[in-house]
Design brief:
single chain, alpha+beta, two-stranded antiparallel ribbon, 11 helices, globular, antibiotic resistance
């Protein structure tokens, strides 16, 4: 969405003070730990842009709260699997040989939106070590949440998502759909701990040297996310509201994941 379109859909400037009120009305309280998915354009015309949204989130949770966001960098993967867009097969080996290695400080996010990318560079923000599906976090629990994220199982029981579930975190979705709800990957892992895998590759630093490494990662089935989310939308645990003009949701991560995992487990062949 262009800035002109954001202005057209807004009844007025969305200020930082209004955002804080909207977060509070949705149910966000001081001390909360939030996994945030956010679309800046869906909020409307925000006075101050992405930094204003981040400041408002930090104000809403206070100094005892922790903000977490996905910081995925999907381009650090094997080019043979690229489809949006694909590249010629004749390029693959050159890409594998020259792709810059993952750097938590410098590697940008891809497809995460302006808020997540701005948060990545925010003073004090930490980032997990996974080269493709990292998380960023700021707050008292940040180090604990980001401490582990195995290369081959980045969303499983030893991942930041599992720590968030254990710490009674909530998921905040601001103008985003269930198809992009990263937390649902943990439900996949709980429902299918021995599910199918696929081969991938990435560039990382190993013992001080840049290396292209191959690994197997668990397959995901994002086509299940929409119906699972639709079921959650009618549950009492989930709170609906608006942040600016953006339809938004707030729900407890652990409880939601347990319910979805239970349903998916019951439908396994």
């Amino acid at each position: 969405m262009t800035e002109a379109a954001a202005i057209a859909r807004s009844s007025g400037p969305v200020t930082q003070a209004r955002l804080v009120v909207d977060f509070q009305r949705l149910g966000i309280t001081p001390g909360m730990t939030l996994l945030v998915h956010a679309s800046l354009s869906r909020i409307g015309w925000v006075c101050g842009g992405a930094p204003a949204v981040i400041w408002s989130l930090l104000q809403a949770v206070g100094p005892e709260g922790t903000i977490v966001m996905p910081a995925q960098s999907s381009e650090l993967s094997d080019p043979s699997g690229w489809c949006d867009p694909p590249v010629p097969e004749s390029w693959w080996e050159t890409i594998r040989a020259t792709m810059p290695p993952y750097d938590p400080r410098l590697t940008p996010t891809r497809g995460m939106g302006q808020i997540a990318e701005t948060f990545r560079t925010w003073p004090g923000v930490q980032r997990s070590t996974h080269p493709q599906v990292s998380f960023t976090a700021l707050g008292p629990l940040a180090t604990d949440i980001l401490a582990r994220q195995p290369l081959e199982d980045p969303f499983g029981t030893a991942s930041p998502l599992a720590v968030l579930a254990d710490r009674d975190a909530h998921v905040l979705m601001i103008g985003t759909g269930w198809e992009s709800c990263t937390a649902l990957h943990l439900a996949e892992r709980l429902a299918e701990p021995d599910g199918p895998t696929q081969e991938d590759g990435t560039a990382i630093m190993v013992d001080g040297e840049r290396r292209w490494v191959r690994f197997h990662t668990l397959c995901t089935r994002p086509e299940r996310f929409l119906p699972a989310g639709a079921a959650l939308d009618g549950h009492v645990m989930l709170r609906h509201g608006h942040v600016g003009s953006a339809p938004s949701r707030l729900f407890p991560l652990g409880e939601a994941i347990r319910q979805i995992a239970s349903v998916w487990t019951s439908f396994r062949p």
